[in-house]
Amino acid sequence: MRTKITSEIAGQVWKVIAKQGDSVAVDDVIVILESMKMEIPVQATKAGVVSELLVAEEDMISEDQHIATIESE
Amino acid sequence: MSWQDQIDEIHQRRALAKQQGGAEAVDKHHAKGRLTIRERIDGLLDDNSFDEVGEGAGVPEYDENGKLKDFQPANFILGFGQLDGRKVIVGGEDFTVKGGSPNPAGLRKSVYTEELALQYKMPLIRLHEGGGGSVGGTGQDKKRRPLGEPVFSTSRFVPLAKTLGVVPVATAALGPVAGLPAARLVASHFSVMTENAAVLIAGPQVVKRALGHDMTKEELGGPAVHLKSGAIDNLAVDEQDAFDQIRQFLSYLPDNAWAFPPHLSNDDKIDRCDDTLASIVPTNRRQPFQMRKIINAVVDQQNGDSSFFEMGRKYGPSLITGLARLNGHAVGVIGNDCMFYAGAMTASAAQKLRRFADFCNSFHLPIVSFVDEPGFMIGPDSEMAGTIRHGTAAISAVLQSRVPWASVQVLKAFGVAAQAHFGLESYILSWPSAASGALPVEGGVAVAFGREIAAADDPEARQKELEDMLAASQSPFPRAEGLSVHEIIDPRETRPKLIAWLENAQHAYRTTAPEPYLTTMRP
Fold first, then answer.
1. Which of these, B87, B101, B107, B321, has the minimum number of CB atoms within 10 Å of its CB?
2. Measured between alpha carbons, how far apart are the two ends of chain B, in Å?
3. How far is CA A73 from the centre of its chain?
4. Considering only CA atoms, which of B152, B150, B156 is closest in space to residue B107?
5. Sign of CA dihedral B337, B338, B339, B340
6. Which of A7, A27, A38, A64 to mutate to test the interface with B (most CBs of B within 10 A)?
7. What is the average pLDDT across B314-340?
8. Helix (H) and strand (E) counts for chain B?
């Protein structure tokens, strides 16, 4: 099963925490965005393996943008 | 001679009406995973409490001997009932008859719903599933020339609008809801939709013909759209969850605008001080925290469950709105969520706040605000959304409030938007983490001291120095010294302090008989 991880806010990618192929649990941080001078984590909503990571540090992100994909059973 | 034949026909008509659209239509409806309107009403109300109104409304069909053969009931079911022992009025479309699109008797009953609520001044619940009118009319004789409504008739929207100032109105979308039923759905103080519901002004075929968009009804008006658009407040995992949410929502509210909200005792301790509150706000202001954890730690808990009932989480998400209890008293709760644009007031958050403040005033709910406000949202999208107008309207709604108001300044209170968190005669508590001023230091220093920073030998060091200096001036301690806040408190004391305030505030507030709330034009 594929789960799209999207950003609920616009901002800039400050740090990419997860790597493609990483196993993640629910609420694990995938990337941290900087928005309005704050560090806002984008977290896994499903446990599984990060199969796609679609952003890099300093990328500008818009609301609802697809950030990563998690494959799970 | 007796009236037995007529009495038999009454019972026969009632039995036929209970068959709704017939066994086949009911089976088809169940196959979609949906309950019929009669099952919904039974699922919502206290056992055996439904007292139907207009059960005999419909169209009879007679055989050649003048005997009743069939009876098509009104496709809107309406009546009185009890919810947790309190009287309510409940109604909803019968989707098994004409897909809920009103037949003549159904239309009359649906319009009568609000009239009943206004007459009896009881909370109103509408369970919607159905379409609006069709170009073919409501099933009347197609050969007749349409005469329209007489000029002296009252628009059916008059009672629909009036109810919002008179009784609490809760609605649910439990399937496709379009046209007039959709308008009735959103004319409410609280609305909930199930995952398989869709709310539409017009359905896919009409949209495709007019605009060329080829979309399903779920894509047009499913939960992903309308929880975010703000048309609907909450999502329900199934129909029972929708009924449970309506029951919980109404538990905080009075029967009507002439009564105060009910007090429901619980065993949570007044002096419960949650230790997590001492460190929940990070000292590094770049790092976010969970405002909902603060709200849940402060309000009443019963058997481990928080009394906080959130409404509209997905809409204007930088502002949290909901209902809760403090020592059994119902209160409206607002709070900034810094996970969304640092908690800034967006256009949608402002509209959410204005609506919520008016709602609390309509039903005499004191308001508790947990403040972490960086200001109005900035940038081109925010300007284009008219945030300044919506934000100013929200501030007007707050400052026109007549309900008791308490503000807990958790962290930021900056700019004009900070005014949206402090009502008249607000009781103000400040946490040690609080910071106030015209602009947050992080954003304001580089602008206000741009030349000085640029001219410095080490611009970065000078900026940091200025930020530290100005951050100290935003400290809550001088404000407490000047009685600019009522108290600066240990965050763990928030619950007992708020309860003590609420008991005092109710003492004065309840000396005047409650009455409907009237507002003025706002920006």
1. B87
2. 71
3. 19
4. B156
5. positive
6. A38
7. 97
8. 19, 20
CB-CB under 8 Å, B344 with A36: yes
- Neighbouring-strand partners of residue B74: none
Instruction: Note whether B69 and B61 are within 8 A (CB).
Output: yes
Instruction: For residue B296, give the H/E element and its range.
Output: helix B291-298
| CB neighbour list of residue B394: distance below 8 Å, 6 or more residues apart | B345, B350, B351, B353, B354, B357, B420
From CA B130, how far away is CA B179, in angstroms rounded?
9
Cα gap B187→B164, rounded to integer Å: 7
Rounded CA separation B288/B17 (Å): 57
Q: Residue B304's pLDDT band (boundaries 50, 70, 90)?
A: confident
**For residues B433 and B410, is the Cβ–Cβ distance under 8 A?**
yes
Which structural domains are found in chain A, ordered by start? 2-71 (2.40.50.100)
Note the Cα B505 to chain centre separation in Å. 25
Distance CA B498, CA B246 (A): 27
The phi and psi torsions of B163 (rounded to 5 degrees) equal -55, -30
Minimum mean pLDDT range among B23-27, B60-64, B131-135: B131-135
Tokens of B172: 């649910």
Classify residue B332 by burial, with Cβ atoms within 10 Å: 0-12, 13-18, 19+: buried
Q: Inter-axis angle of helices B494-509 and B291-298, to 10 degrees?
A: 60
Q: Is the pLDDT of residue B92 over 70?
A: yes
DSSP state of B340: T
Q: How many CB atoms lie within 10 A of CB B325?
A: 25
CB contact B344 to A (< 8 Å): yes
What are the structural domain ranges in chain B?
A: 4-137+155-251, 275-434+485-509, 438-474
- Asked if residues B37 and B93 have their Cβ atoms less than 8 Å apart, the reply is yes
Output the CATH code of domain B275-434+485-509.
3.90.226.10
Tokens of B264: 């429901």
**Domain B4-137+155-251, CATH class in plain words:** alpha beta
Q: Distances in Å between the alpha carbon of B192 and those of B148, B236, B394?
A: 34, 6, 24
Q: How does pLDDT run across B72-84, given as a tens digit for each residue?
A: 999 999 999 999 9
Assess A27–B contact: CB distance below 8 Å, yes or no.
Answer: no
Task: Identify the CA nearest to A46 among candidates A68, A20, A17, A16.
Answer: A68
Task: Establish if B442 touches chain A: CB-CB under 8 angstroms.
Answer: yes
Residues of chain B positioned with their CB less than 8 A from the CB of A27 = none
- DSSP label at B275? G
